[in-house]
Amino acid sequence: MYGIFMECFVALKTYFGTVGHAALFAAALISLAITEKNKKIRLILIYMPIVMIALFLLPVTRKVYVRLVDGATYYRLLWMIPFAVVTAYAGCRVLMRLHGMWKYAATALIAAAILFTGTDVYRVPYATKTENAYHIPQYVIDICDTIMPADDERDVYAAVPDMLTFYIRQYTSRICLIYGRESVEPAWNNYDPIHEVMQGDKTTGVIDTKKLITLTRETPSKQCSYVILNTSDKLDVPLEDQGLKKLATISGYDVYEDPVAKKNMDDLLGQYGK
Q: What is the rounded CA–CA span in Å between residue 2 and residue 20?
């Protein structure tokens, strides 16, 4: 039980980011506990956060959550606690009771406390300078533009490497993915045969292209008109031998079009007059 409690405590500590922010939140709770008289506000901004933090730290809560959901997302329970709202509201309550220069001085002090107890979000390792208005890698946009259907054409299906599954649908809904994050994340244990083949043989790492293309053409209504692979992927035979056409190589990704799958989809839709 102690080990589970420490895991929860570390998650809470990580969520706050710094001791300073945790101290600000604690000070805000104490301030509201003393000065706030409105029962509804006290319930939402004082009692509820305290109870939820206590429940979060309880090993029993984590055990129940893991059994019903999964352990990887337990920290997300903290998203329901209005840390920022409590701190901001408490600060505003203090300022409302001050006047003149005291109010200006207190405003500067509170702002400085928030600023200097936090960390610059742009200094974290995974933060990079944005390349476009969509805030996704530019190569994703270039790949999407290469296979994007025209306005008068149907949406297309594509089989893509894991990394691209996180970005493509942020840019366009015209490109449908044959599998998504539910198959990419191992913890979710959602099996997809196409995804498995695209990972390559477990021993040699070689992709069986015949099996891959057989699968991407298998479902009549979801045939992959496009297949995208990493240029570093090992193939038993080139995809051109399976009837595919290489359209481009973009930032380490080979983009292939499958004329057979496209024709099959066109024929299928033609049967329904679409």
A: 26
Q: Which two tokens stand for residue 262?
A: 């496209």
The per-residue pLDDT for range 110-159, each reduced to its tens digit, is 999 888 887 777 777 777 788 899 999 999 999 999 999 999 888 999 99
* Residue whose structure tokens are 């509820």: 48
Phi, psi of 235, rounded to the nearest 5 degrees = -115, 145
What whole-number distance in Å separates Cα of residue 143 and Cα of residue 118?
A: 38
Half-sphere exposure of 196 (CA within 13 A, CB side): 8
- Which residues pair with residue 3 across a beta bridge? none
Enumerate the domain spans of the chain. 2-123, 138-271
Work out the angle between the directed axes of helices 2-16 and 19-35 (0-180°, nearest 10). Answer: 90
| pTM score | 0.72
Residue holding tokens 């997302």? Answer: 73
Could you tell me the two tokens for 43?
Answer: 């319930």
Q: Are 73 and 7 in contact (CB under 8 A)?
A: no
DSSP category for residue 2? H
Strands 175-177 and 156-159: parallel
Q: And the tokens for 40?
A: 């509804």
Give burial (CB, 10 Å; 0-12/13-18/19+) of 54. exposed
- R_g over Cα of the chain: 27
